[in-house]
Amino acid sequence: MSGFSNPALAEIRTLLQSIHSIAVVGLSDNPARPSHRVAAYLQAAGYQILPINPMIREALGQPAWPDLAALPGPVDCVCIFRRGEEAPAIIEAAIGKVTRLVWMQDQVVSLPAALRAREAGLAVVMNDCMLRRHQSLIGLT
User: Fold this and answer.
1) Among 25, 30, 49, 71, whose Cα sits 20 to 30 Å from the Cα of 99?
2) H helices of the chain, where?
3) In this predicted model, what pLDDT tens digit does every residue of 40-86 receive, in sequence order?
């Protein structure tokens, strides 16, 4: 990932402690899917989860939104569970809607999307699991 590195662990800890709402793009309503397991953990950790998926009506007891543009207001973070080639369009939709952090889950890699998000003033974590990182840095309280 030439030209990109994730923030230091201390900065990631601070970011995770400073956010409250997470729009999860690609959140499945199927508990066996990684997106569902990660979002359920984050919800249990106290974050407000906003499911983004045009194929479902709700997940984790929350209404699902078809895309980021449909959200009624800003969110602190977007967590992306889509293929890397979809990330640039997701980032463009996130700019102006997401206030602090873009998180691209394991195997979601798009250098152009990451650089565009940073250019827009957002912190970016790429190719890392938000659940695993939260567990290692903060854990459930």
Assistant:
1) 30
2) 9-18, 34-44, 87-94, 111-119, 130-137
3) 999 999 999 999 999 999 999 999 999 999 999 999 999 999 999 99
Tokens 């979809």, residue located = 86
Q: Are strands 48-52 and 58-59 parallel, antiparallel or unpaired?
A: unpaired
pLDDT at 121: 96
Distance, CA of 140 to CA of 8 (rounded, Å)? 21
Q: Go through 102-114 and write b for each residue having 16 or more CB atoms within 10 A of its CB, e for each that does not.
A: bbbbeebbbeebb
Handedness of CA 29, 136, 20, 107 (dihedral sign): negative
In the sheet that holds 21-25, the strands lie side by side as 48-52, 21-25, 75-80, 98-104, 123-125
pLDDT of residue 141: 60
